């Protein structure tokens, strides 16, 4: 238990600083966005587990040889007024910190979900007044606005893709198809759930570099994943032009600001609103997408992708083993 707490602390530090910094600067994620997405999730989960686990294991070390025994002894102290003399000040402090951090993370996750759902509910109410069904098919709405705007609003069976008159007038049919396929890919692949989790993580620990780098990277990766779906049926030139036209309407122009005011002060992209993405973040993501399409590189070889996936599994397995394997390190 003693050595496990220190190993967990070291792992938490490594996953909180050097690993996310190096990954955010790497070039390979654009070649295999799905693999990179899995790795970011593993880093986030393993980092949080290691951070809480290090404090928990250290706090329980005097009263148990393993996590289960320590928790049983702690439960006896709390529920049955067993003596607490075995716990020193720093052990009690570590246990309190672990409990508070866990409660803080869970509360922030739920609070973020509540805020997002409230925003979406207000958004849908305004869309019912401002938007009309599109001829492009069910689940697509059109708002009357001269600036090019496209975004999706998740909501299960109520999910919709919203386009503006200005966008539909500016796009050729193939470009409009690319936009619709891209937005529908966000919905079908449930990207809003990832954005919700990483947005909550950043709000809970805004001082931790991992949270900012992870959110920015995940925002970019989900756009690349949606682009890849669109590229299955549309050309790169078509998609690049569509991205450029849509981006021109979300760059903070006066028209875009007016639209945000009309539609519940949300960001132009429904997914951006869910993630709390800033205009600067959106601009960087757009630049990364266009650069990737203009200078395509082959996908990572299958053996390399398999190694990254295996590494992601090991990242999750290591803190879990340090926590739950009885007497692993004595």
Write up this protein.
The longest helix has 42 residues, at 89-130. A hairpin with a 6-residue loop joins strand 1 and strand 2 (140-143). The chain has 14 helices and 4 strands. The N and C termini lie close together (6 Å). It is mostly helical. It has a 4-stranded mixed β-sheet with strand order 1-2-4-3, with helices on both faces. Residues 252-269 have low confidence and may be disordered. The chain has helices spanning 2-16, 18-25, 33-60, 67-80, 89-130, 165-170, 173-188, 191-204, 209-230, 236-248, 254-262, 270-275, 279-294, 302-324, and strands at residues 131-133, 140-143, 150-153, 160-164. Helix 1 (2-16) runs antiparallel to helix 3, helix 3 (33-60) runs antiparallel to helix 9 (209-230) and helix 5 (89-130) crosses helix 8. Helices cover 70% and strands 5% of the residues. This is M56 family metallopeptidase. InterPro entries: Beta-lactam_resp_regulator, Peptidase_M48. Residues 118-198 form the Peptidase M48 domain. It comes from Pseudarthrobacter quantipunctorum. Pfam families: Peptidase_M48.
């Amino acid at each position: 238990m003693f050595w496990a707490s220190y190993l967990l602390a070291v792992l938490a530090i490594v996953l909180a600083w050097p690993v996310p910094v190096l990954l955010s600067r790497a070039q390979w994620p654009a070649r295999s966005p799905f693999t990179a997405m899995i790795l970011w999730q593993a880093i986030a989960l393993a980092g949080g587990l290691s951070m809480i686990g290090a404090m928990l294991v250290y706090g329980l070390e005097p009263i148990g040889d393993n996590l289960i025994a320590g928790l049983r002894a702690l439960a006896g102290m709390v529920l049955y007024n067993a003596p607490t003399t075995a716990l020193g000040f720093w052990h009690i402090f570590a246990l309190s910190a672990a409990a508070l951090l866990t409660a803080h993370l869970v509360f922030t996750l739920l609070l973020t979900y509540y805020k997002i759902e409230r925003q979406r509910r207000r958004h849908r109410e305004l869309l019912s007044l401002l938007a009309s069904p599109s001829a492009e098919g069910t689940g697509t709405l059109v708002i009357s606005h001269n600036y090019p705007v496209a975004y999706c609003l998740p909501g299960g069976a109520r999910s919709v893709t919203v386009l503006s008159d200005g966008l539909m007038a500016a796009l050729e049919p193939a470009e409009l198809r690319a936009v619709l396929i891209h937005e529908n890919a966000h919905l079908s692949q449930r990207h809003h759930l990832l954005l919700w989790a990483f947005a909550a993580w950043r709000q809970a620990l805004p001082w931790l570099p991992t949270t900012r780098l992870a959110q920015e990277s995940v925002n970019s990766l989900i756009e690349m994943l949606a682009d890849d779906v669109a590229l299955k049926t549309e050309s790169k030139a078509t998609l690049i032009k569509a991205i450029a036209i849509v981006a021109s309407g979300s760059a903070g122009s006066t028209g875009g600001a007016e639209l945000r005011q009309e539609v519940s002060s949300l960001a132009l992209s429904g997914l951006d609103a869910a993630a709390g993405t800033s205009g600067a973040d959106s601009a960087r993501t757009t630049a990364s997408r266009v650069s990737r399409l203009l200078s395509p590189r082959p996908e990572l070889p299958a053996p390399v992708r398999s190694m990254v996936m295996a590494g992601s599994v090991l990242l999750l397995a290591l803190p879990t083993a340090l926590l739950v394997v009885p007497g692993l390190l004595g």
